[in-house]
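thought: user wants a sequence for this fold. calling inverse folding tool.
action: design(structure=
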């Protein structure tokens, strides 16, 4: 099959300055995702608005697609980028593997497994997404959601005082659920819940016409956990984890 690895890497990053070029474990972050794709023997394309990222990508032996500034804003969604850029790839790939640089610790075996599962079940599934199991404590069916009318929740102390002044009664917060009447309270009743871990997305390009990368049927691949790098604290934790792994391998 014609499978293409697509790596999005824009130059601007508010949380971690110059994130995609910042070294992690001795390599620029973008190179770690390029390595992942190349270990699987895949055609690899980096989508960027940065000449520096493009130059580094070329030096790694991969293709580069320059995206317009309109697709490199903080408000630009990943779907917008994919919907615009994937149809420009020639020859047209049968499947697209999305590798976001912010998940650098993904394993080659997991990528190969996802590719294999979807390739062998194209008649049943439109995509495969790597996920982590949600801890019981954070199961969405057990959560209580804040009422949207509580826009001044940070001023709740003042609201309580004002309410008491005018009514002489103690103010009570009114929380809603999803809806709260259907909130599950017995641990045994909670269904197993998963959340995408951001590491691996593989999908049919035709899915994009339907408004998402998922299509009608998605196969979940339970991962053993990965590291997403969206804050400096997460970056520091990842550096410590890599250092520990390197010590074990010596």
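)
observation: tool returned 250 residues.
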């Amino acid at each position: 099959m014609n499978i293409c690895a697509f790596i999005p890497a824009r130059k601007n990053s508010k949380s971690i300055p110059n994130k995609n070029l910042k070294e992690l474990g001795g390599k620029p972050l973008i190179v770690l995702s390029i390595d992942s794709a190349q270990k699987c023997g895949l055609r690899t394309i980096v989508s960027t608005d940065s000449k520096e990222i493009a130059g580094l990508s070329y030096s790694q032996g991969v293709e580069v697609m320059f995206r317009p500034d309109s697709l490199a804003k903080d408000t630009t969604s990943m779907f917008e980028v994919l919907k615009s850029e994937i149809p420009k790839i020639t020859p047209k790939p049968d499947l697209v593997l999305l590798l976001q640089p912010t998940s650098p610790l993904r394993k080659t075996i997991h990528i190969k497994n996802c590719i294999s599962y979807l390739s062998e079940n194209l008649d049943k599934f439109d995509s495969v997404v790597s996920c982590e199991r949600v801890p019981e404590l954070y199961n969405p069916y057990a959560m209580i959601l804040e009422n949207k009318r509580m826009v001044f929740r940070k001023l709740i102390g003042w609201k309580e005082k004002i309410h008491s002044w005018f009514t002489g009664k103690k103010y009570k917060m009114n929380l809603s659920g999803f809806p709260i009447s259907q909130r599950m309270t017995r641990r045994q009743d909670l269904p197993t819940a998963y959340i995408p871990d951001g590491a691996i997305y593989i999908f049919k390009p035709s899915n994009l016409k339907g408004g998402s990368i998922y299509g009608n049927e998605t196969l979940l691949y339970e991962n053993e956990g990965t590291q997403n790098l969206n804050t400096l604290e997460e970056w520091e934790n990842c550096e410590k984890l890599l250092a520990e792994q390197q010590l074990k391998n010596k």
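thought: summarizing for user.
answer: Here is the designed sequence. Strands lie at 3-8, 23-24, 27-28, 43-48, 63-66, 95-98, 127-133, 194-203, 218-222.
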